[in-house]
Amino acid sequence: MEEVQIISYSPKYAKVFKSLNEAWITKYFELEEEDIKTLGDPEKIILDGGFILVAILRTKGEAVGVCALRKSGDKTYEFSKMAVSEEMQGLGIGKKLGEAAIEKAKGVGAKRIFLEGNTALKASIHLYKKLGFNEIKGQKSHYKRVNIVMERHIE
Q: Model pTM greater than 0.90?
């Protein structure tokens, strides 16, 4: 596999952030109001104190994956909007994005990262567990598709 580099978001990646996320959401679920707002204005994640990371193929400069860390509280971030282009799935890009997001959260003093998912997406749940996330009960979501919430504490 070609080497992948994880970089910080810039506005030139807005279209790929939107298209990669729309692709997986519409393949398995339906776009919800919150998706449309977030995907239409990814810079708001950054303006609100969060981060977006982009996975780039080194030689081509092509963006093949994205993920966001949304600031959710003083030392809490939500890991969200992770997407890898369908033809690049299964090559470890999601794991690289997840590890980079965890390191980014550590670097800004986060103590907790949580995510909202769906157990039908078995590969993503498996990845989240490998990244150290554990299921938590009783947390509500504003997405209809969410049936599992997971968190990871940062030392």
A: yes
